[in-house]
Amino acid sequence: MRRRVRAGELVTPYRALYARAGYWGGLNGTERVLHVIRALAVRYPQWTFGGSSAAAVWELEHPWSLHDDGVVYIVGDGGSAMHTHARLRRSFVPTEDMRKVTVRNGVRVASVARTLVDCGLRHRFVDVLPMFDSALRRRLVTVDEVVAICDRTQADCGHVLRLLHYASPLSENGGESLCRATIIEEGFKAPQLQHEFVDPGDARIRHRADFVWHTSDGRIVVLEFDGQGKYVDPTMTQGKSVRSVVSEEREREAVLRRAGVTQIIRTDFKEVAARLPLTAKLVDAGVPLAGGMLLWNEVPSGRWA
Questions:
Q1: Which sign, positive or negative, has the C-alpha torsion 196, 197, 198, 204?
Q2: Could you name the domain of life of the organism this protein comes from (predicted)?
């Protein structure tokens, strides 16, 4: 097997685990870690997976990059000793948490609440807010359950509580969650999610906007996050052509403006990842900053954003 790895026929993503190089190259980060987890679950059926490994098993929204290091996370209550190595991390959790272990798709996995707390303590805000949003959206966990885990955790859970403060089941996908987390980290006021606008000329026509801000000077700013699949994924376009989808978007924007929207700005994953292009658009649109600060391009009126 080592000879075939050296020849490039196989890859070894984890100790004593092998996969065909061509097949492995076609998988994304989450798919790869799930292959490793399922194989390890067969070899070590007593293991309980936690952290970002459990997030993958629970299918919580998160960036694939969390698995780039190939590390697998397991949890235990300290009752049994085991050696760890470069690609294995073990966390010790209260015995009560181990009693809530669930078997999902043949894999022993920590509860969703325990998974969210562990990820919130270990990873960045922008990487974990999508997990919290998707867990709440799918009703896999409640806020009280996450707080209860924090109460049993010796570590400072301030980061987790901040995630709970901003988490929302209204976020429709991981891309929107990532965008919102970036907006918050850049110091802007958290937007209102999925606000519905009604066409004043026909109450039957209603459209929801991804992100909405109502400014102190009476303006309404809308930000739309455009995923690539919006124009090319048949499941999202319902078989419509790109031209038809673009035409519908223009009509939708016209409805929003008739409903009182002052400015509509758009962004995508590339701009969110780069941050500066998104930030520049928000500043130019006069989106209010958090903490009652006045934006430089707002007309002084004695009112705070």
A1: negative
A2: Bacteria
Phi, psi at residue 183, to the nearest 5°? Answer: -60, -45
* pTM score, whole prediction: 0.86
CA torsion sign for 259, 262, 266, 272 is negative
The number of residues in the chain equals 305
Amino acid at 194: Q
- CB–CB of 191/213 below 8 Å? yes
pLDDT in single tens digits along all 305 residues of the chain: 999 999 999 999 999 999 999 999 999 999 999 999 999 999 999 999 999 999 999 999 999 999 999 999 999 987 555 556 789 999 899 989 999 999 999 999 999 999 999 999 999 999 999 999 999 999 999 999 999 999 999 899 999 999 999 999 999 999 999 999 999 999 999 999 999 999 998 989 999 999 999 999 999 999 999 875 443 344 444 444 455 556 678 888 999 999 999 999 999 999 999 999 999 999 999 999 997 554 444 433 333 32
User: E strand or H helix at 115, and its extent?
Assistant: helix 112-122
| Alpha carbons 47 and 98: distance in angstroms, whole number | 11
H helix and E strand count, the chain: 15, 11
Q: Which helix H or strand E contains 91, and what residues bound it?
A: strand 88-92
Q: Which sequence spans correspond to the domains of the chain?
A: 2-169, 186-284
Report the DSSP beta bridge partners of residue 195: 209
Q: Which residue has the tokens 């301030």?
A: 158
Exposure on the CB side of residue 158, measured as CA atoms within 13 A: 1
Long-range contacts of 88-92 (CB under 8 A, 24+ apart): 89/51, 91/50, 91/51, 91/118
